[in-house]
Amino acid sequence: MAAPLLPAPGTPMVEIRGLRTEFELPGRKFVVHDHLDFSVQRGEVVSLVGGSGTGKTVLLRQILGLERPAAGRIDVLGRPVAELGQRGAASRVGMLFQHGALFSAFTVLENIAFPLMELRTLPKALIYEAAMVKLQMVGLKPEDGAKMPSDLSGGMIKRVALARALIMDPPLLLLDEPTAGLDPESSDGFVTLLRALHRDLALTVIMVTHDLDTLFELSTRIAVLAERRIIMTGPPKQVIAFQHPFVHDFFLGPRGQRAMELLREYPFAV
Fold first, then answer.
1. Torsional sign, CA 268, 40, 89, 3
2. 20-79 residue pLDDT tens
3. Sheet of strand 71-76, all strands in order from the earlier edge strand to the far edge
4. What are phi and psi of 22, to 5 degrees?
5. Which residues, listed in sequence order, are joined to residue 221 by a DSSP beta bridge?
6. Other CB atoms within 10 A of residue 212 CB
7. Residues 265, 4: Cα–Cα separation, whole Å
8. What whole-number distance in Å separates Cα of residue 192 and Cα of residue 194?
9. Residue ranges of the domains in the chain?
10. What is the pTM assigned to this prediction?
11. Which residue, among 49, 119, 40, 115, has the nearest Cα to 74 in the 3D structure?
């Protein structure tokens, strides 16, 4: 399959300007984002961190075109996501949802093939061949393709969902808590896989995670979402030094010792 058109050199893979997100509640509006600006360059792995209710996952869904903001502009691969529509965005952006979001009545291979079935007019045999390639790309065996989601471990569900996110060969990948719910061994293996795919496929990645090990091992940059906007962005060492209550609690509270260990372990984090 041909790769989607990339933006012109120097154009961000994702550019958000003046974003406002609000939800109607009984008697009032609840504002999640206001005057939010954010951009991601080609090849970056940018992690979004923020407290509960700050709209991290909402932001991913808006980039994917699943939700529309009240105001502002989101450009994806150099084009307004509002013009691309959900189908257009889905063909250019892959998303790994937090809990996998697999179809329980579909086999593993059918789950992986589903986006191609929906968005491309191709022979079924070719679609399943592409799905099998992605299945093995994420470290699963050909015989796993016949299994049902109920037969899978948590780590395998994540890998199947990742294979499905990659089936359209997107240059941009969104990850929502990619290691949530995994035991340490499965988490380490999944992070290693993500790092290899980022390198080998030249992916640009936007990730939401609360896990410090995942954050430090994969991120080239961290963006802090607080006060309805991005208040700080930079490499981990710069972000940790930023004077803000959330930043202090997230990195230097009970998990502060681990954060310092990870800074020493990953030199790129400085």
1. negative
2. 999 987 888 889 999 999 999 999 999 999 998 899 999 999 999 899 999 999 999 999
3. 28-40, 14-25, 71-76, 79-80
4. -145, 150
5. 46
6. 18
7. 36
8. 5
9. 93-169
10. 0.91
11. 40
